[in-house]
Amino acid sequence: MPEIVLDGLFKDYGDNPAADGLSLTVNDGEYLCILGPTGSGKTTCLRMICGLTKPDKGKVLFDGVDVTDMPVSERSATMLSQVYSLFPPKTVYENVMFSPEIKEWDEKSARQLVRSMIKMVHMEHKVSSYPIQLSGGQQQRTALARALASSSEVLLLDEPLTALDARLRLELRQELRSLVKEMGLTAIHVTHDQDEALEMADRIAIIRKGRIVQTGTPMEVFRNPKTPFVSNFVGRSNIFLGKLRSVDGAFSETELENGMVIRARGTDIPAGTDVAVAVKIGSTRFPPIQIPTEEKPEPEQPKGYFRGRVERVLFEGATITIEVDAEGIGMVSSKLPSRRYDDYKAGDEVMVSWLPERASVFEIPPEGMDTELRLD
Ligand SMILES: Nc1ncnc2c1ncn2[C@@H]1O[C@H](COP(=O)(O)OP(=O)(O)O)[C@@H](O)[C@H]1O
Ligand SMILES: [Mg+2]
């Protein structure tokens, strides 16, 4: 159950570095998710931890011991590869029995362990089947059971649920996590699926271009993103560009080019800086339209409330996404529970707003906003 430290890892394959100063600490017994888009270096990271890839520079430590030059077989880590790697001439049962057998476990406890792993991945009905007789999802589940039965203290899971049917994928999230916790393992689970990471992880490390850009609990990375990229990758965000006008304690005001003012949470960024204000699409609200009266006329600019017109409403099952063309700030996307589906249709006049403390302010990165937000 060791603590794992990655200290300044570099791995260059020519074009873009797959690891570019990658540093990360994984605590003993932790379930850590590495979340990042395709090509960000997730698989390379796992391969360096288990010894399949040697870094050009930097160190890997298991409980303070430098294992960078240690062969795979001597590290107590098992990697479940993104491409399933079952032995074709062996049955499901024999595949899962592989590790206990070579480790010469006592037969009775080996059988018990193998049976319980097979049960956990819902493969009891296929114990005698060969890999070729299994669907992709069933092969993946068998590979998962085999990895769990290896009794390594460190489990490296490379997109372990991606090949499964949607329903089973959701079911296995909690089961896999509980099992890893019960067995007291340290798990590093790589995924590009933000919901999976948010639901399963003790902590999430966001990886981008071979570098960890933020680590924190699911709530921390969701609520307090450190960069516009994180803000948009973990829960999509609306982004508005402007100049920071003032900061007053917990709140700040940013002026857009057209003079519109957007309120957001406080920041250390000095006034006058070009900034981006990011608002999660799930943080927007639709307050009732205020009709100005003689006693209560419409303020000159109702800060934080924007009039708009619904452009379209997308039904997504549990949620809907409403696109609103808002006066002065452009398109705003909003995620609402789908019971609100009947309340809005294209063409409706609405007000859209958010709590300023839910809007984050970022300095615009030197490479520009478009590059920052790209997913590759
Ligand atoms: N064996 C390899 N040879 C050449 N390039 C590689 C190799 N492995 C990974 N890369 C490159 O390194 C980058 C990161 O890859 P990878 O770690 O597989 O990312 P991810 O798992 O996040 O999709 C990609 O640009 C990929 O093309
Ligand atoms: Mg990968």
Secondary structure blueprint with pairings:
Layout: E1 4-12, E2 17-26, E3 31-35, H1 42-50, E4 57-62, E5 65-66, E6 77-80, H2 92-102, H3 107-120, H4 136-148, E7 154-158, H5 166-182, E8 186-191, H6 194-200, E9 203-208, E10 211-216, H7 218-223, H8 228-233, E11 237-248, E12 251-255, E13 261-265, E14 274-280, E15 284-285, E16 305-315, E17 319-326, E18 330-337, E19 349-354, E20 359-363, H9 369-373
Parallel strand pairs: 3-8, 3-9, 6-7, 7-8
Antiparallel strand pairs: 1-2, 1-4, 4-5, 9-10, 11-12, 11-14, 12-13, 14-20, 15-19, 16-17, 16-19, 17-18
Helix pairs in contact: 2-3, 2-4, 3-4
This protein binds adenosine-5'-diphosphate and magnesium ion.
In short:
This protein is α+β, with helices and mostly antiparallel strands and 376 residues long. It has helices at 42-50, 92-102, 107-120, 136-148, 166-182, 194-200, 218-223, 228-233, 369-373, and strands at 4-12, 17-26, 31-35, 57-62, 65-66, 77-80, 154-158, 186-191, 203-208, 211-216, 237-248, 251-255, 261-265, 274-280, 284-285, 305-315, 319-326, 330-337, 349-354, 359-363. The strands form four sheets. Strands 6-7-8-3-9-10 form a six-stranded mixed sheet, sandwiched between helices. Strands 13-12-11-14-20 form a five-stranded antiparallel sheet. Strands 15-19-16-17-18 form a five-stranded antiparallel sheet, with no helix packed on it.
